[in-house]
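Exercise: predict the fold of this chain.
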Amino acid sequence: MKWVPSIFQNRKIDSETILIGHSAGAQLIPSILEKIDTPIKQVILVSGYAKALRKDLESEKNIDDFNWEKIRGKAKEFIFINSDNDPWECNDQEGRKMFNELGGELIIRHEGHMGSTTHNQPYKDFPLILKLID
C-alpha cells in the first residue's frame, strides 16, 4: 500500500489544514509534509516516533530517517504528545527527538500508548487534543 500518494487523492491540503496522527499515523504526517509546498496550520503527533515507517522495497519512502530540514518549515505549529511509559517505544525520548528536530511544543504524559486496547487504554475521548487545536 502506498500511503502517502493515497492521502493526496481527493484531499485538499492548504494553509488552514490541521493534521493529527497517532502512533503509525503520526509517522505518516512527516512523509506528507515532505511532499507539500505550502505550510499547513498545525501538526499534532500523539505517540509518534522519530524513525520513518518501513515500507516495501518499491516504496518511495523506504528509508530510515525523515528529511527533518525539509519538514521543519511545513507547519506553523508542531505539537508532540508522548508518554514516559509507552510499551511500544513511542515514548518521551522519541518525542524529544522530533521536538529537537522540528521545535514546537512537547507534552509528556504517563498514559502508555494513549489509545491501546491491547494495554487496556481505549480512549473514547482525548480532550487534550481539542484544547490544542488552533
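Check your answer against the key: The mean pLDDT is 87.
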